[in-house]
Structure formats: C-alpha cells, structure tokens
Amino acid sequence: MEQYLRETQMLDYSNKSIQELIEKRGWRNLDEYQRLKAIYNYIRDEILFGYNIDDCIPASKVLADGYGQCNTKGTLFMALLRSCGIPCRVHGFTIDKKLQEGAMTGFVYRNAPQNIFHSWVEVYFEGIWYELEAFILDRAYLEKLQEMNLDCSGAFCGYGVAVTDFRNPVIDFDRNNTYIQSEGINQDFGIYDCPDELLKEHHQEMTALKAFAYRNLGRHLMNRNVRKIRN
C-alpha cells in the first residue's frame, strides 16, 4: 500500500496550505470512516465545480483556485487522503463531450474534442477499493440543475452529468461507489498509482491553438455558465 500513500509532484500534500487545511478541519483526529467521508464531502461541496487552467496542476493550486473538475478535484482529493493515511489511486478514461453540453455552449462546444479526458479516484478502505466519482459536482450546482429539469425522472446527460437516475444519483459516500459522469465513459485507460503517471501516458488531446483558446477564453466562458446555473 506504500505506493498509494506517497507524495508526488502533483500530490504535493506537504504544501503548507494543504497541511493548514487538514489541521484546521481536524481530519486526522477522526476515525478512518469519518475522515474519508469528511474529506470526500469537502472536495465535493466546498471545492466548487469549475474548469482550471490545466489538468496537470498540483493539489495546492487546485486548493488555491477553490474550484475544479474531475481531474483536478481528484488530484486534491488524493493529496488530502494520502496525507491523512488513506490509500488511493486514480482511474483514467475519456467521456463523450455530449456530457459537457450546457456547461460548454456555442463555439466552445462545437470546437471541443469529441472525447474529453476524465478520471475518478479509487480509495482503499476496510479491504475494499471504492470507485468515487461524484465529488465532481458540488451539491448546490447539482440541485439547481435538478430544479431546471423537473420533468426529467430517468437518465440525464449534459451540464457535467451522465447518470441513469437524475432525481436520485448516488453522490453520498457510505461504504459504496459514487458516480455522476460514468454513463458518458467511452474509453478506459486503466488504473494508475498517481495522476502524474496517468498524465504521462494519457491527456486531453487537442491542438496547441485549441489548448491556448481553452486556457484563455473557453474555460472562462464555461465557468461563467456554471456560476449562472449555481447562482
């Protein structure tokens, strides 16, 4: 299990801001179940859903941003878990861009790659590896989406969601897997010890021009769309 607890360049949990957060929240004083649940809820609801400049940013940068998506929130989640003695790893995928429609709109959506790089975190607890994905969307954002789509009682795809039961998605951890985008997965890259290793082999495929446009314009428009929905 040692490899699932080690610090890496991206999982920079010795960073002062990360250690101060852990101490302030008192997570190390909790039993392992409550510790895992508290960190999971923090990542889901207090690190808001949004789009960072790059998937490769370290956990400390995600914390400083205060927002993230599947890959970046996952990086911070893993750093906090490992610093608190909970083993974890990362599973890489791609998802169909249909899942992002609504968060992405107009020319941003039209020019986005068909396959969007995606990951979830797998956590080892009580002898079981749990697949945790539903930390991606903060509860406030998801509840507003549900209010906007009151007529939807089954499957839903869009705005960062891909689930079979939109009214009752499994987003709370209670010794169970949690999912919020898994129905959009179209390619599986397998399991890696850390995001650093995953991103050496797989990453978001796009031209340099599109990457520049995303960093400097596209993600800001996407974040504006997300804020409008949440607020």
TrEMBL record:
Ranges for domain Transglutaminase-like: 62-136
A Pfam family annotated for this UniProt entry: Transglut_core
Annotated SMART domains: TGc (SM00460)
Positions of transmembrane segments: none
InterPro entries: Papain-like_cys_pep_sf (IPR038765), Transglutaminase-like (IPR002931)
SUPFAM superfamilies from the UniProt entry: Cysteine proteinases
Protein's recorded name: Transglutaminase domain-containing protein
Protein species of origin: Pseudobutyrivibrio xylanivorans
